[in-house]
Amino acid sequence: MNQILVGSRLHYLVKEPTVFLLNLSVAQNEHQATSNESIEISPFQTVDECAVGQSGNRLLRLNALPGELTIAYQATVELHAEEVDSTNLGEVSYEKLPADVLTYLNPSRYCESDKLFRFASEEFGHLVPGYSRATAICNWTFDQLTYTPGSTGPTTTACDVLLQRTGVCRDYAHVSISLCRAMGIPARYVSGYAVNLQPPDFHGFFEAYFDGRWFLFDATRLAPVGGFVRIGTGRDAADVAFATMRGDAECTGMKVWANEQQSGDHLLDPENVQTAVSSA
Amino acid sequence: MNQILVGSRLHYLVKEPTVFLLNLSVAQNEHQATSNESIEISPFQTVDECAVGQSGNRLLRLNALPGELTIAYQATVELHAEEVDSTNLGEVSYEKLPADVLTYLNPSRYCESDKLFRFASEEFGHLVPGYSRATAICNWTFDQLTYTPGSTGPTTTACDVLLQRTGVCRDYAHVSISLCRAMGIPARYVSGYAVNLQPPDFHGFFEAYFDGRWFLFDATRLAPVGGFVRIGTGRDAADVAFATMRGDAECTGMKVWANEQQSGDHLLDPENVQTAVSSA
Amino acid sequence: MNQILVGSRLHYLVKEPTVFLLNLSVAQNEHQATSNESIEISPFQTVDECAVGQSGNRLLRLNALPGELTIAYQATVELHAEEVDSTNLGEVSYEKLPADVLTYLNPSRYCESDKLFRFASEEFGHLVPGYSRATAICNWTFDQLTYTPGSTGPTTTACDVLLQRTGVCRDYAHVSISLCRAMGIPARYVSGYAVNLQPPDFHGFFEAYFDGRWFLFDATRLAPVGGFVRIGTGRDAADVAFATMRGDAECTGMKVWANEQQSGDHLLDPENVQTAVSSA
Amino acid sequence: MNQILVGSRLHYLVKEPTVFLLNLSVAQNEHQATSNESIEISPFQTVDECAVGQSGNRLLRLNALPGELTIAYQATVELHAEEVDSTNLGEVSYEKLPADVLTYLNPSRYCESDKLFRFASEEFGHLVPGYSRATAICNWTFDQLTYTPGSTGPTTTACDVLLQRTGVCRDYAHVSISLCRAMGIPARYVSGYAVNLQPPDFHGFFEAYFDGRWFLFDATRLAPVGGFVRIGTGRDAADVAFATMRGDAECTGMKVWANEQQSGDHLLDPENVQTAVSSA
Question: Which helix (H) or strand (E) holds B37?
Fold first, then answer.
């Protein structure tokens, strides 16, 4: 498996003592091996790292004083995602879902699945249950929405997006997650780095649960799922904001990258829907 | 400490094979000792019990066939809640909050704290930080809302309630939780049995986090906090619905009770705000 | 042209002096000739009638004292709606629409057309402009929604309905109106009596503007457009509520009817979309 | 009475043939006499002017070809607003309100008064009915909100603003209008030019109805009510947008002015609430 160099560099103008919570470190799990990882804060200061939840999220926390602040993260990641033939991946019946997976059927702040039962049922209820139904939801989301930077904001929900028909990666994920949950398919939000994403940025995509495992999906088709490096997992974007601040600081610049050591030609085409990628 | 007999009896008419997920068993934690617990399903069938999350939630799951169904739960509970003088209980600064508590600062489906930062800050920003600020939020919620059964439904959120000014226990909790989170105070929803609640029913209240512990609050003032028996803990009511069904079943009757073995006179008056009750 | 007997009988329990505003009289315009009209209030009292707006709306106003109240209205109506071949009815360009028609392109309380420009454009933008596009909007609305009494309430809007996919006649009209306006087709709400409506009730439908005239549409297909007797015209249901009260009164019963003197066989089938009915 | 020079100059880059609907001409009514009025379009073309509604609104309509477009309007206005002692101005009871005024009790797109009955009643229900109650609503709105350019957008409603607590002039007006209507006081939106407004711009304020007349209010306190020159009157901002386009054109610049011929010292202080200004 090839190596991916990921990283991000964030610049802030801190106006008063400000606590930063950062979700930008690569998650720790068996599907991605990290090496040469570094986090540098300038001016120098120590960072508190803590694990959050069961999915390998690593929260960085620091206390910044007024002035300029740069946060630079990088790591080399080896992905061990498993590629599976999706043909026979089935939905898990409600009575057999593990208890900790059931949580991902509940509605969340930006994924109001409880308002979309009939909507989902009428659009997708006639389809054969299984992995292909989540694919159908992604295709539908891709067809319905127009990717439009700036068209949504931090409080925009899946229902808002279903009406306005525009959004960015986070919104595509929220819509797909909401429709999956409304159909009884557990689904959750994933933030990460993405090889070949243009323009480079943090990416938001999602996972749905079939046959006892989580599989990656991305309704935006902006980058190959096989090149996704997980940062955090949550119910929706509220759980994995890359930076949350308490105090007063202004973001003055940001750079994000995810480059394969060799060409990414072997990565799955974003439109290849036959091969499922299990990474959690 | 006195003993409390809690229980619930739910009747359904099941119209097609239906999976039930039930949150009605008393949670398992060090603050409440349960004995003589029983769950009876009629017609007889086994129930699958599973633990959910870190707070002792116990999910019951059963697969009902068409026909009448009765679910009867009861238990004897000894509460070991600790009563503390609330005077000096302080808010925990953002940089010191445990990682698993940070989650309860995030907005959730029915608690859109991300839309209420300025609202909360203008109403409560001038108050001294600490336990008394959560009390002020409860008092404000109690004053603003009129308890009105039937005025809200399953998709009603804290923002809806802030505008319509009516709600039931679940709505009072959602409003208080949202305002706490918007002020930087971690807060979470608790469902439970409540001694002296009139009319007897499942109850919804909440917890906020001070000085390293969770404390119980109830903006409805309908029953003494010291007589609350926890069923489940979650981000909001979405996580601890007492019954979720997949299939088709109609609730035809319900009885809920929570009785102290002796008189409840020793229980704190709902309006006593000096004594904090730590139960988690 | 045949005669239609319409009427309504409303019973209230008035608990304190209450002003009633009633929209239940047949509108006065050249398309419907009214005879034998009577309005009886019991216990007896006089009613103030006033014309509202430009479309023949007649508002009845009365001041009720505590006690039982019955309002009985009836009239015989001869409809002079004109039936036209819809084939060549065109949309009027923005620059040629009469000023008083332009108003009906604006969003209103229950018709948030300003949020649906892209939605409407993607669903209907590829269709040939003209009467048939409004027909397509009605068909789409009929297909998407399930008529479900009780599923919506007085504050439900078109956007709510588009997400929940259920509603009653008023909601069908609001959705269709919103989509027409978003496409640049002036549209307005009409309340009325409807021959052959089952169960008999006040009905809500709508009008859209083509080639200088208003034409009737009804996305519910519950009754033939040719048997609609107009009560009031407005931007949406907010303008023509059949009863608005200021005080305290409870509705204890209601009967509404609209019967043709002879069989209604000659009325257009609700699904006949070739023949347009111009009634304003 | 002094003379006010008002005007506006709008620059557009028109990308395809575009119809413009403009609400920027001074309304024609007995309270404001206009002279030296001119509207110039460059490149030259004729403009279609039409009266809309009953309040003197004058809609300008033009058909622009691709290229640069400048619309320049100016006029000299003499205001004949009547200043009255507000002390005894009373609310008009529901049964005596003129039919065409009743319309302004209905909820509208950006003024969801139907959702705010209890809210308004609890905040203002205890106050003495009359002009001073609308003043109290303005004061409350001024106190609750923070004037924040850019914090709201074209689809923001009064309910949104009540939760987020920020807005601009249009939002202040929508909140005040909604609360007035919910209290049974007819209220409507007014757009106009405003002497001493800083920075100069089109302004949005509102009117409420007392003792048979409409009186001007402005919850923003940004400029003296006595220096307001009316452009248009409507249910809310949806009815009097200064420019609506159908086609594709980008606004590249805008200048608005309203200058008194002599010093405006005689104008009422925005915080003088004793003197009511009747201008319609």
Answer: strand B32-42
Cα separation of D50 and D179, whole Å? 32
Whether residues A164 and C118 touch (CB distance < 8 A) is answered with yes
The 10s digit of each residue's pLDDT in B203-252 is 999 999 999 999 999 999 999 999 999 999 999 999 999 999 999 999 99
DSSP assignments along C98-139, one per residue: -HHHHGGGS-BTTB-GGG-HHHHHHHHTTSPSSHHHHHHHHH
Using a CB-CB distance cutoff of 8 angstroms, which residues of chain D are in contact with residue C99? Answer: 50-52, 59
Answer yes or no: do C106 and C183 share one domain: yes
Yes or no, beta carbons of B119 and D163 under 8 Å apart: yes
Whether residues C188 and C250 fall in one domain? no
Per-residue pLDDT tens over the stretch B70-92: 999 999 999 987 888 999 999 99
Q: Which of C115, C144, C163 is facing A164, going by the closest CB pair? A: C115
Which residues 202-261 of B have a C-beta within 8 angstroms of A? 235, 238-239, 246
Task: Report the chain B residue with the minimal C-alpha distance to residue D158.
Answer: B163
Beta carbons of B38 and B73 less than 8 angstroms apart: yes
Residue D103 with chain C: CB contacts under 8 Å: 52-53, 239
Does A91 contact B at CB distance below 8 Å?
no
The answer to whether the CB atoms of A93 and B19 lie below 8 A apart is yes
- Whether C89 and C153 map to the same domain: the answer is yes
Mean pLDDT along residues D161-178: 98
Contacts of D115 in chain B (CB under 8 A): 163-164
Determine whether the interchain pair C165/A115 forms a contact, defined as Cβ–Cβ distance below 8 Å. Answer: no
CB-closest option in A115, A144, A146 to C163: A115
Query: pLDDT grade, residue D18 (50/70/90)?
Result: very high
User: What would the pLDDT profile of D242-264 be if each residue is shown by its tens digit?
Assistant: 999 999 999 999 999 999 987 55
Q: Are residues A205 and A142 in the same domain?
A: yes
Q: Indicate yes or no: CB of D164 within 8 angstroms of CB of B118.
A: yes
pTM: 0.94
Query: Same domain for B95 and B206?
Result: yes
Sorting pLDDT into bands at 50, 70 and 90, what band is C41? very high
Q: Is A165 in contact with A144 (CB distance < 8 Å)?
A: yes
Cα C49 → chain centroid:
20
Is there a cis peptide before residue C199, judged by omega within 30 degrees of 0?
yes
The residues, ordered by sequence, that sit 6+ positions from D134 with a Cβ below 8 Å of its Cβ are D176, D180, D185, D187, D208, D210, D215, D217
Structure tokens belonging to residue A269 = 């085409």
ipTM (interface pTM): 0.93
C209/C255 same-domain check: no
Q: Three-state SS for C11? A: strand
Q: Are residues D217 and D206 in the same domain?
A: yes
- Nearest chain B CA: its distance from D116 CA (Å): 6
Residue B59 at interface with chain A, using a CB cutoff of 8 Å: yes
User: How far apart, in whole angstroms, are the C-alpha atoms of residue C174 and residue B272?
Assistant: 50
Which residue range is the domain that position A171 belongs to?
83-194+201-239+271-278
pLDDT attached to residue B272: 58
CATH number, position B10: 2.60.40.2250
Strands A187-194 and A228-234: antiparallel
Cα distance from C53 to chain D (closest Cα, Å)? 7
User: Closest partner residue to A115 among C122, C146, C164, by Cβ?
Assistant: C164
Task: Give the residue among A246, A103, C108 at the shortest CA–CA distance from B241.
Answer: A103
A64 and A88 within one domain:
no
Q: How many domains does chain A have?
A: 2
Nearest in space to B221 (alpha carbons), one of B255, B264, B263, B172: B172
Burial class (CB in 10 A: 0-12, 13-18, 19+), B87: exposed
Please tell me the distance from the alpha carbon of residue B63 to that of residue A208, in angstroms, as a whole number: 24
Mutation target to probe the B interface, by most B beta carbons within 10 A, among D141, D151, D160, D165 is D165
